[in-house]
Design goal:
There is one protein chain. The chain contains 16 helices and nine strands. The relative contact order is 0.13. The longest helix has 25 residues, at about 185-205. It has a single domain (about 15-365), classed as TIM Barrel, CATH 3.20.20. Strands 1-4-5-6-7-8-9 form a seven-stranded parallel sheet. Helix 15 links the parallel strand 8 (about 295) and strand 9. The protein has helices spanning about 15-20, 40-50, 50-55, 60-70, 85-95, 110-115, 125, 130-140, 155-165, 175-180, 185-205, 225-245, 265-270, 285-290, 310-325, 345-365; strands spanning about 80, 95-100, 100-105, 150-155, 210-215, 255, 275, 295, 330. By secondary structure, the protein is an alpha/beta fold.
Length: about 375
């Protein structure tokens, strides 16, 4: 596999060390949606698959697109190629994803019976194709200068929002209405989804992922009281369950609530190992608020990858300076990479993160002149 900044046949553990707030030689970097439409080789594989859902459900193809960005860029992690909506699809809602339309469910939750008959998830069997993909990816990674593999899930609230709404939405009117009009039904649904998320992440860990991330994509659309009751409450339950089991407790957990800057302290109190930040919260401000009890991940605005290399380097330096010298920082975007991003900009970003963070560490290590 090339390129790689690890020595030959030596594992690159920068990400795992940073998640545990241990010293690293330079700041690790990976990119949300790093396997995706901005890469021509990804578009070729997706065309071969025929559609997005088939691509996700074909382990060999999911493995291939997971590995593609690692062949181009010196990234410090791979992230499983899949989708957060695999859970509701496996629970019988019938997922489809169309270009320019986004995700849609054939059978969204509408009636009382829909909610009551929603089946529990048996992740190891209902999502066996995901576990097979993980095993294939780990086998490929372990044969080279390996980087860790990150698994993931959508948050209970985010999954519930899609399941009730029937797809994406600007305001998620149906889903938010459920919280206010039928809170008990909402809680029963969230309890069922939380159990599914715990089982899904546990199965991914058993299959071989070395860190997990929970994407609370729509948590930021809630008011503080609703966020606490309907989102954070269930994130806390999921983290507690994973940390309680010997088979999963050592695996680092990253929580990311997009638009969640108001609640960083409470997210950090969940017991997670790292808090993901979008681009609206300066890293130094987040560190002052959270302290050093968790790692921080983020947080370049994805739009800046449309800027010139000089601007990218300047913003990368600013974020690294904000992160300081205390360790526990993973460089990432503040959300997913945009589809028409130039891959050359990504290569330059990854290089800048490694190069500038090494320079900063060397500068701080120099003794003061007399």
């Amino acid at each position: 596999m090339s390129p790689s900044s690890a020595s030959a046949n030596a594992p690159n553990e920068r990400l795992l060390r940073a998640l545990r707030r241990q010293p690293v030689d330079c700041t690790p970097v990976w990119i949300m949606r790093q396997a995706g439409r901005y890469l021509p080789e990804y578009r070729a594989v997706r065309a071969r698959a025929g559609d997005f859902v088939t691509l996700c459900k074909t382990p060999e193809l999911a493995c291939e697109v997971t590995l593609q960005p690692l062949r181009r860029f010196a990234l410090d992690a791979a992230i499983l190629f899949s989708d957060i909506l695999t859970i509701p699809d496996a629970m019988g809602l019938g997922l489809s994803v169309h270009e320019g339309v986004g995700p849609r469910f054939r059978k969204p939750l509408r009636t009382r019976r829909d909610f009551e008959t929603l089946p529990p998830l048996e992740a190891a069997t209902d999502l066996a194709y995901v576990m097979q993909a993980i095993r294939l990816i780990r086998r490929e990674l372990d044969g080279n200068d390996s980087v860790p593999l990150i698994g993931f899930s959508g948050s209970p609230w985010t999954l519930a929002a899609y399941m009730v709404e029937g797809g994406g939405s600007k305001d998620f009117r149906r889903a938010k209405g459920l919280l206010h009009e039928q809170p008990q039904r909402a809680h029963r649904l969230l309890e069922k989804i939380t159990a599914a998320v715990i089982g899904y992440l546990s199965a991914q860990i058993e299959a071989g992922v070395q860190a997990v991330m929970v994407f609370d994509t729509w948590g930021g659309m809630l008011c503080t009281a609703d966020y606490d009751e309907f989102s954070l409450r269930y994130l806390n339950l999921a983290v507690a369950a994973l940390k309680a089991e010997p088979a999963t407790r050592a695996i680092p957990i990253i929580l990311f609530t997009k638009g969640g800057g108001n609640w960083l302290e409470r997210i950090a109190d969940s017991g997670c190992d790292a808090v993901g930040l979008d681009w609206t919260i300066p890293l130094d401000q987040a560190r002052r608020r959270i302290g050093d009890r968790v790692a921080l991940q983020g947080n370049l605005d994805p739009m800046l990858l449309y800027a010139g290399d000089e601007k990218i380097e300047r913003e990368t330096r600013r974020i690294l300076q904000q992160a300081g010298n205390g360790g526990g920082h993973i460089f990432n975007l503040g959300h997913g990479i945009l589809p028409d991003t130039d891959p050359a900009r990504v290569a330059n970003l990854v290089d800048a993160v490694h190069r500038l963070s090494r320079e900063m560490k060397a500068s701080r290590a120099k003794p003061a002149s007399i």
